[in-house]
Amino acid sequence: MRCVLVDLWPLYALTVTTPRLQLRLPREEEIAALAELAGGGVHRPGERPFMSPWTVGSPADRARTVLRDHWQYLATWDVAEWRLGLGVFREGTPIGLVTLHGWDFPVIRQVSTWSWLGVAHHGQGYGTEARAGLLTLAFDHLGATAALTGAFQDNHASLGVSRKLGYEPDGISVDARDGQAVVSDRLRLTVERWRERPHPPATVGGLDACRALFGL
After folding, report:
1. For residue range 15-68, what is the model confidence (pLDDT) as tens digits?
2. How many CA atoms within 13 Å lie on the side-chain side of 179?
3. Which of 9, 44, 23 is nearest to 138 (CA)?
4. What is the C-alpha to C-alpha distance for residues 62 and 188, in angstroms, rounded to an integer?
5. DSSP code, position 197
6. Can you tell me the distance from the alpha carbon of 150 to that of 155, in angstroms, rounded to the nearest whole number?
7. Chain centre to alpha carbon of residue 183
8. Strand pairing report for 110-117 and 146-152
C-alpha cells in the first residue's frame, strides 16, 4: 500500500479545536503563509516582547526565521526533547503559531509554551483561546503536571493571558535585551490549578497514533 505523509508522521493528523480556532501542524504551503504573516509584524513598532530577538530585522528575516524553526522542530524531534509548533487557524486562515516544548517528558511531565499572532489578530481573545487549547492537549491528553512560561515585565499582553489562565509567580530571571539587563517574570501553572479554573473548551483529535512520539 502507498504511504501518505500522515502515516509516516502522524503529528499531521493531530488537531486541537476550540470554539473559534483550530491548532494543527501546518503543511508546506501553510507554513509559507504563516511566515509571510510574521513578516508583516507580530507586535507594534518599537516593542521587544520576546526573549529571542527574532522579530528584529526585515520582513524577510522574520519570515525565514519562522520557516527555519518549523523545519528544525520537525527534523530534530526526539522523545528526549521535542517542540510541537502548531499553526493557529481561524476559519481556515492562519493567524499565528503556538509551540509546546517538552524535555524528558515521560519522567518530569512538564512543558513550556510560547506563541505569536499576526498583529492584525491581537486584542480579540485569540491568544488566550489558543493557549488554552495547547494546555488542554498538555494537561488533559498528554498527562503534563505543570506548564511553564516567562515574559519580560513590560510584555503585558503575554502576562495577561498567563494570569487569566491561572498561572502563578515562579520567580524572576534577568535577561539581556538590547544591551541592557531586563527582569522577566517566570510563571507556572499546575494541573490542579488548571482543573479548578474556567478556561475555553477544546477537543483533541488524532492523538492516539502520536503517543509513541511523546514517549507515552
Report:
1. 999 999 999 999 989 999 999 998 887 777 766 666 676 667 788 988 999 999
2. 0
3. 23
4. 29
5. S
6. 10
7. 22
8. parallel
Q: pTM here?
A: 0.90
Which residues contact residue 111 at a Cβ distance below 8 angstroms, ignoring those fewer than 6 apart?
Answer: 100, 101, 102, 105, 138, 142, 144, 146, 147, 148
- Cα four-point dihedral sign 152, 158, 159, 165: negative
d(CA 212, CA 208): 9
Give me 187's grid cell.
510563571
Which three cell numbers, joined as nine digits, stand for 8? 509516516
* Whether the Cβ atoms of residue 21 and residue 88 lie closer than 8 Å to each other: yes
Phi, psi of 120 (to 5 degrees): -70, -15
Neighbouring-strand partners of residue 83: 101
β-strand pairing of 93-103 with 81-90: antiparallel
Residue 41 has a CB neighbour count (10 Å cut-off) of: 14
3-state secondary structure of 170: strand
Distance CA 55, CA 2 (A): 41
C-alpha cell at 181: 539587563
